[in-house]
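Practice problem: predict the structure.
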Amino acid sequence: MPKAYWIAHVTVDDPGAYEAYRQANAAAFSRYGGRFLVRGGAQEVVEGQVRPRSVVIEFASRADAEACYHSPEYQAALALRRPVSSADLVIVDGWDDPGTSGRSP
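Answer:
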């Protein structure tokens, strides 16, 4: 079963208030095994347009990724984020290469 990822592009309008969201979302990510792979680091846009902040969060499965988003914990955190930022967020399945099944990395 492939992993799943949240991929978000965010514009933060109020960094101080956004910090409350960051603290609040920890409960949901901990409960559903979300692991940050990218969390707002420096970025260079080489094609197209994107918001100033990029985030990638890994989950063990699509079910975990979706359950996290819809959980009461994340919805409470989301209520803190929405008034102080704009975001584009997708949940995407990872690629499970059938050619590497059963082989060690």
